[in-house]
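agent> Task received from the user: take the single chain below, predict its 3D structure, and emit structure tokens. No templates, no multimer pairing.
agent> Plan: (1) validate residues, (2) run structure prediction, (3) serialize to tokens, (4) report one or two observations.
agent> Step 1 OK, no nonstandard residues flagged.
tool_call: predict_structure(input=
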Amino acid sequence: MDLRLNIAAPLKRSFGRVLDAVLPPRCLKCGEVVAAPGALCPSCWQQLSFLEPPCCACCGQPFDFDLGPDALCGACTASPPAFDRARSVLRYDETSRDLILAFKHADRTSLAPTFGAWLHRVGRDLLADSDLIVPVPLHWSRLFARRYNQAALLAQSLGTVSGKPVLPDLLMRRRATQKQGHLGRLARQRNVAGAFVLHPGRAKALAGRRILLIDDVITTGATISNCAKILRKGGAEKVNVLAVARVIQED
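)
tool_result: status=success, residues=251
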């Protein structure tokens, strides 16, 4: 056995204990001291709404009652999405919004490993049914302004913990779209229509592959549906979707 490995592990643990004593890990949301890096304090954890079954077998919209493993919501029944299945970790609400927006707009990229671990826990079935992890892309102008694509960071973190390959530039956003925060469902669909294309140098990697598409928040599903259509046209056998949060459509 390599002696360096025997020495490195204890040193790493000792350094971690010293670092925790000087700079104790803090809750990702409120800043309270917690037991381990990348964790939430009990109070913040309890405030988050983690999504669990029962839910729509396609889009993941939660149900109040268990209607069976293949039950679909009204929206998916009326107009089946281009993707096969979509799942999310959290309900997007006042509690989760601060975390998501801090990650997305305030350079809190340190949240990516924690979100990646949550995605891995919720998306085990989707990962088992996928060959390749692909993030929803940003237009180059928005990427230049923000300096990072939050979906790509999530995809890379999920790839690290799951061991699945990640292809961050398979999809491209060929035109800048409006920010969708205040757009309705139909306006969002028009906004992203035709906005996505396959990277011409990566298209061959798609044929017959099962894709796991990653995004930060699912709102109306317009963005992921348009991405899924492009992936399908490019030869993907299946497209599943995994996101940190989703807006719940209330009855």
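agent> Step 4: summary for the user.
Strands lie at 85-91, 132-135, 171-173, 196-198, 210-218, 238-246.
agent> Done.
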